Amino acid sequence: MIQQGLRPEFVLAFVLLNITIILAVARLLGKVAVRVGQPRVVGEILGGIMLGPSLLGAQLLVWNNAPAVLQCDQSRAFAPVGADLETFVARVPTISSCIFPLQSISVLAILGQIALVLFMFLVGMELDLAALKGKLRSIFIVGVGVIVTPIVIGLGVGSVLYSARFALPGPDGLPDQLAFSLFLGAMLAVTAFPVMARILQEKGLQASTMGVIGIAAAAVVTVMMFILLAVAKGTAKGNTFSEHMAVVIGAIVFIAVMAFVVRPLLRPIGDRVREAGAVHADTFAIVMIVVFASAYTADRIGINVIVGGFIAGAVMPERALMFSELRGRLAEITVTLLLPIFLAFSGFRTDFTTLGWVWLPGLALFIVAGIVAKWGAGVVSARLGGLTWAEGNVIGVLMNCRGLLVLVVALAAVDAKIITPQMQLGGVLMALVTTAMTGPLFDRFLPAALASRDAPTPAPEEFADFVTEGED
User: Fold this and answer.
1) Which CATH code for domain 109-452?
2) What is the pTM of this model?
3) Residue segments in the chain with a per-residue pLDDT below the cut of 70
């Protein structure tokens, strides 16, 4: 039986305190990451890990004399031993469990999901649909190539890691191997679509053949990956084939309705924005209603709220003008405040103290397989889609970047009780390694890609950091 835990006024106080701490750590480590030539998100992911049990948990320290104002006994008593959320609650008082109590973390989790919805809405608005004309075949080949290859490799790697006990044992034994492998395939298939879009835009290549095909293919991969994630969840629950098809058909119908019904209905909104030259309060409210209704629908279908946010952005009218207006209103609050909260929430569920030497070979296999699957598939499929080998190499580098989306998939697998904490650590390491390597590799291989098309080399710029959009 769940005990009362903290009183509501204390929950509010802890949420405010937690946000304060998270923002301070995120900004500090984000600046450090930028100083050493890495995107800010790398520092923010590390910040979230540092605030969790990896550094402040029971394995390294116990806080027996916590100040009474922190209400440690009440907050730790909120969930009994054996509860689903026990991973949040240390059985002994620690800095992490006392300062970040379960009830507060539950609120932060919701704020983090809202951040992802708004973030992907802005990403969806940046997708230039007009530029896709005449390139659909290439986009299809690249998109399918970089989603199918990781799935196939995930099935193979999943078999090895399943035998190595990276699947989470339950009361009835190990979970279904296919479900485990599908979750791994989804983790391998992730592409940080926002990173690709921002890098190509900052380099002035978003309208190039390589840029258009890469960005659009990454968008296709994002939607297909979340459908795969839904299938993995259904497999874990023992869903039938018809139930799986219901999710897939529901996703297709949802996208069709948004494109061919909702989008035309929004045209008067676009006319109003074009005439006024700005997005007024009433229009902004309507847009937000569409965004959250779309996210809700996507969630009920079984794909993900993130897909709903992205599709809502993609169907908006007067996209260029609306994006310039809405970006100013949403980007700062989303990227500076809410996304670090999601990254901190992921860090609370990540405990590097559980990582022993026995797990390292399996995690190394997982990370190497992920890099080979995405980079290699990007190169080959881009070449089959009509790009040069050099352009395909750049596409592969960008497709390999996982950003924060792999953390979403890893948390979904944890919630489904399919993967062990060590396998979730693999997702965090995948995010850090592939995101950190993207910038240097992109700058290394871009000149050859430009030369292969006899295109002028743009002025050098620093690696763009769209994952969290923070700027100094």
Assistant:
1) 1.20.1530.20
2) 0.83
3) 1-6, 57-93, 131, 171, 201-202, 453-472
